[in-house]
Amino acid sequence: MKNCLSTQLNPELIDRLSQNDLELGNNFIFTSGISNSRIFLKHVRLYDCALLQLTRASLQITTSNGYEITIPPYSICYIEKNTIFNASISVINGDDCPYNIYYIKNDILKSVCKATESLVTEYENISLIYNRKVFFFHATEAEHTIFYRLLNTEIPQHRLVYKIAYLLSKFEPYLEVIHSLERCIAPTLTEKVKQVVSNDLTRQWRLCDLSKHLHMSEISIRKKLEAENNSFNSLLRDMRMQQAARILKRRNSHINTCAKMTGYTSTSYFIKVFKDYFGITPKQFSLKVKGRNTFSGLN
């Protein structure tokens, strides 16, 4: 099917970009070489649909059901919400960030689906054989420019929607991508918990606190999260570690400041949790993501 959005949306109408968050999964490990570094991530789980832009990197993904895909440098990738996967990223040395992630939040997701629904109505009775969760395409310079400008937090929502829709129109088969988005519209309890906790990540959250905010019993919260293959403790740890990764990428913060901003009263315990989660210390992580080629000499 020829994608109407490809011709309807003009890349020249896009606004300026800003920097992006770096959110990674468990067991983040670096191995360094002369020309590149390899990053291994195990049991990664994304809590929103995501667009991933690769520049100085290639990516190999293996999903929990055994599906494997290799994505070359200078590509743009789509990953469905709640996909669990292992990843291997080969990073070519350089000064800029080798990849960026844009998370499609639920309110934007609904608007994107509404904007694209007229394009797929004639195919609504088609039954899809595969439920793919990962797609990519080789991006042109104009398409990379559109992605960069998605990261500008000051862009009005309607412009964000059409930029996202334009990029989504480049994936093939397009209909499968749209069906993937539609599967993700219904909000999960995991998302509701994230919304509550993210308002104050420094708080010492307990399940009873969450129960009061959501007007649900602790047992109901626990069982519904289990049904979504999640738990309150693992979700809270994910959120804190991912926020720590953002802070260490964006700012010249001291480790103890980063610990306090993510809800840890003990810096040494924060460092332990961070290393258990990512496989390296906060200092090593900070040096690596800022492009300093000093990682191999660190203990």
Broad structural category = alpha+beta
Low-confidence stretches: 1-35, 292-299
Task: Output the helix-strand order.
Answer: HEEEEEEEEHEHHHHHHHHHH
Kindly give the count of domains. Answer: 2
> For the report, how would you describe the main beta sheet?
5 strands, antiparallel
- Strand composition percent: 15-25%
In the CATH hierarchy, what is the architecture of the largest domain at level 2? Sandwich
Helix content: 40-55%
Query: Average pLDDT across residues?
Result: 79
Task: Assign an overall shape.
Answer: globular
Q: Which CATH class of the largest domain applies here?
A: Mainly Beta
Strand order of the largest sheet: 1-2-7-4-5
Strands, total number: 9
Distance between the termini: 53 Å
Number of helices: 12
What is the rounded Rg? 20 Å
Structure commentary:
With 299 residues, the chain is an alpha+beta fold. The protein folds into two domains: 13-185, Jelly Rolls, CATH 2.60.120.810; 189-293, Arc Repressor Mutant, subunit A, CATH 1.10.10. Helices cover 42% and strands 19% of the residues. It has twelve helices and nine strands. The chain has helices at 4-8, 106-120, 141-150, 157-168, 174-183, 189-198, 207-214, 218-227, 232-250, 255-261, 267-278, 282-289; strands at 28-32, 36-45, 49-54, 57-63, 68-71, 75-79, 84-92, 99-104, 134-138. It has a five-stranded antiparallel sheet, with no helix packed on it. A hairpin with a 4-residue loop joins strand 4 (57-63) and strand 5. Helix 6 crosses helix 9 (232-250). The longest helix has 19 residues, at 232-250. The protein is globular, with a radius of gyration of 20 Å. Residues 1-35 and 292-299 have low confidence and may be disordered.
